[in-house]
Structure to design on (203 residues):
């Protein structure tokens, strides 16, 4: 029936973690590390942005800001985070609960982002995006105020969108699971190729 396709597997079919404590450590460290990577620049860049809007601005500055913020909300927030980064991090963080290893747990934030134990093409894409982001950050820092702050405000909107999307996907994963096989390690057992919470014994 269609229910077998649209509904998550029954509790009895969910994988039991062999090392539940290690899995939870990996989940908390991985998700927490990624959240910190988002919250920290949101705070720092927001301060620079507020400094910029407190300066005397011309209509050109306001027009640029009015165009830049929606652009970053769509390109960075929606396309970059909601459609790519956020669900990938969420599913890999939850995947750690049932599939921990010492390496994955120790480097959990890097695992969640997708720097290793992921399809090669996806790994290359993650590294490429990271490189572009670093170059963008360096370039923006060379801008004088208020332009630097105006650019940063758009980035803050995109990062904030990504943060909200990540928390939403984690919540979704806890409630009914997430299905994104190409974000998971290629050697994972097919029965574990859904990121779902391991149930406590007896449930």
């Amino acid at each position: 029936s269609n229910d077998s396709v649209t509904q998550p597997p029954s509790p009895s079919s969910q994988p039991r973690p062999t090392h539940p404590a290690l899995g939870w450590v990996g989940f908390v460290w991985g998700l927490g590390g990624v959240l910190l990577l988002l919250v920290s620049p949101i705070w720092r860049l927001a301060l620079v942005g507020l400094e910029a809007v407190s300066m005397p601005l011309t209509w050109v500055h306001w027009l640029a800001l009015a165009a830049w913020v929606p652009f970053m909300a769509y390109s960075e927030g929606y396309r970059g985070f909601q459609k790519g980064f956020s669900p990938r991090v969420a599913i890999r963080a939850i995947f750690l609960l049932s599939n921990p290893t010492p390496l994955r747990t120790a480097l959990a934030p890097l695992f969640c982002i997708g720097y290793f134990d992921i399809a090669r093409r996806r790994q290359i894409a993650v590294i490429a995006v990271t490189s572009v982001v670093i170059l963008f950050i360096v370039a923006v820092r060379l801008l004088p105020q208020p332009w630097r702050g105006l650019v940063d405000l758009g980035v803050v909107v995109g990062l904030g969108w990504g943060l909200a999307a990540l928390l939403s996907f984690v919540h979704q994963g806890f409630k009914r699971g997430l299905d994104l096989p190409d974000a998971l390690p290629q050697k994972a057992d097919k029965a574990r190729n859904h990121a779902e919470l391991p149930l406590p014994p007896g449930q």
